[in-house]
Amino acid sequence: MRHFLLLVSFSILSNFVAAQKDSIIKYYDINNKIINDNELVKNEARKIEILTKEDDSLWMVRIYRRNGKLIRYGHFKSKNKKVPVGEFISYNRKDSISGILYYNSKGLKHGKTKTWFSNRNRKSEGIYLENKKEGVWKHYHYDGSVAVKSVFKNDSLLMRTFYNEEGDIINYRGTDKFFKPKFKGGKNKFNRIVGKVLDKIDYNLDGTVHVNFTVDISGNIINVEVENKELPSSVINNLTAHFEGIKGWQPALHLNRKLPYDFSIPLKFRSLK
Q1: What Gene3D superfamilies would the database entry show (predicted)?
Q2: Residues whose CB is less than 8 angstroms from the CB of residue 178 and which lie 6 or more positions away in sequence, other chains included
């Protein structure tokens, strides 16, 4: 049953491709590099891309997660994917829409764009005019309250106002830079803690198990997902509990906001045989 879910998901998608004319299928690893080896596809593929030519000569791209759930879809003028056209929709791990973006016939961002958090509160919204930000843009705290109001003209920032979760105007002197979550003691310390977690797992397995999780706005690990359905539920529950018990994360930060952030890490198991 090794890789059963992955093979079933990819088999369904591959059968879908076989039923379509002018379709191209590609597999990508965790570093977003294309995988051509069939055995590596089974072990290392993190997502699948299906590119299909439609009747109106546009090419539709659909990108799926390892478990077969949709990540994003939209259209391009050709199979080289250099000129996006029309509506692009993205989905989060909970299968709800995380973003909508529009492109004009020249492949430039054009029109209103919106993003959402996984709790379905608004994350951001604004308008592009041929790739340039225009008018009022809003970014939101995780609870749905406004965090930032920015005014743009021809992609130039004219003014910006920051708010706390209570709606009060605050003096914020940070940058526009996005800061990923940080673990106290650094990445190596986190890896050592994960190694100790693996030492506590009493199960004979040889191979890679991918674990997805979210660092929430409080720095806690939530939404742990173990991508290996051949493991007994007791082992999956054990892994989940150990990951949820790891403390020491600082949340992601951007524009006066603490943000949830998704991770996916490979765990290397070695058989005891």
Answers
A1: 3.90.930.1
A2: 252, 253, 254
Q: How far apart are CA 237 and CA 212, in angstroms?
A: 14
Same domain as 47, residue 15 = yes
pLDDT digits (tens, 9 = 90+) for 127-174: 999 999 999 999 999 999 999 999 999 999 999 999 999 999 999 988
Give the span between the Cα atoms of 1 and 229, in whole angstroms: 8
CATH number (domain holding residue 9)? 3.90.930.1
- Residue 175 resides in a domain: no
Query: 7: which strand partners?
Result: none
Is the separation of the CB atoms in 49 and 61 below 8 Å? yes
Residue 127 lies in a domain: yes
Please give the radius of gyration of the chain, using alpha carbons only, rounded to the nearest integer.
21
What pLDDT does residue 26 have?
94
Residues 6 or more apart whose CB falls under 8 angstroms from that of 232 comprise: 203
For the chain, the farthest-separated pair of C-alpha atoms sits apart, in whole angstroms, at 65
Which residue range is the domain that position 218 belongs to? 182-269
Q: What confidence tens digit (pLDDT) does each residue in 103-125 have?
A: 999 999 999 999 999 999 999 99
Question: Do both 197 and 129 map to the same domain?
Answer: no
141 and 40 housed in the same domain: yes
Q: Which long-range contacts (CB under 8 A, 24 or more apart) does 19-26 make?
A: 20/52, 21/53, 22/52, 22/53, 23/50, 23/51, 23/52, 23/53, 24/50, 24/51, 24/52, 24/79, 25/49, 25/50, 25/51, 26/51
